[in-house]
Amino acid sequence: MENQQIFSQPMVSQQAENNVTPFFARSRAFGVMVEKELADHIRGWRFVVLVGLILLTFVGCLYVSLSNIRTVFANTDDPDHAFLYLKLITTTDGTAPPFHVLLSFLAPLLGISLGFDAINTEQNNGTLTRLLAQPIFRDNVLLAKFTAAVIIVGVLFFSLSLLVIGGGLIFTGVRIEPEELSRILGFVALSIIYVGFWLGLSIMFSIAFKQAATSALSAIGFWLLFTVFYPFLVNLIIRSLLPDPAYLSQAQVMSYNELILDVMRIAPNQLYTDAATTLLMPAVRSLGPMNMEQMAGAIPSPLPVKESLMIVWPQLSGLLASTISCFALSYYLFMRREIRG
What we know:
Elements: H1 2-43, H2 45-74, H3 84-90, H4 99-115, H5 120-125, H6 127-132, H7 138-172, H8 178-208, H9 212-241, H10 250-264, H11 268-280, H12 292-295, H13 305-336
Helix pairs in contact: 1-7, 2-3, 2-4, 2-7, 4-7, 4-8, 4-9, 4-11, 7-8, 8-9, 8-11, 8-13, 11-13
């Protein structure tokens, strides 16, 4: 009995080691692929150009905000005038839109540029076949490409938030409040999710089409559809179908306006703009039309962070669900795709 017990212990430990080793081997291979994708993105010229464009836009908006920050801070009629660091992101003098509005146009281009040739270029060059011939899992290839791009976007936006805080400390000397910091970090997380949607969409096109030019044009076409043509088409169609507002009651007009807003929120850029505006402007209490009864007795004052998050939760969950859906569809197409040399 003693000999049987002694010899049974190495067998159990050997079985446990065999179960643990593939997990660490898979994690090690996944980490190596993520590092490789990070290096490829950082060394690419298109990434440098897009990052330079975003930084140039950010510096220009920050310069305009700092130039007008004294006037904005002294405006006591504005309920948000005391949020100095939030004003650095949202203040403008009319010469250019605020940074969060410009980011709603530039962020999709960043996501598209990082993913439109993720799969088809490697397959056309023959590197995908050689990569999958190695002892790695196929899904790790797609996960590594998505993870590396999200890491780059996260580092970029987090660095921009640090520049906002550092610039405010240097030029104003006012320390940042915890509520402002939480709102800025929430805006950073929202921007990463927004870019993740376009990244997943562009990766899906890179799997669906063999040529990188076709996938890039398809992704840019979707971006132009949601950014430029979709609001125009929605207003044109709904306004032509709805009756004349002059013959409607106030409740009917509000219900029709709510319908228009709901249709507009199918577009991801509208969801991002609504959520970013609510997070960066604490005085925003509603994202829809309000009647006089709802506004009666309301005191213009900033909301707590928790209340603002409750307002933007539908927009945030919609963006997150869209991002997960795009990546899940990309995962499905890639796992069923036949890879040949």
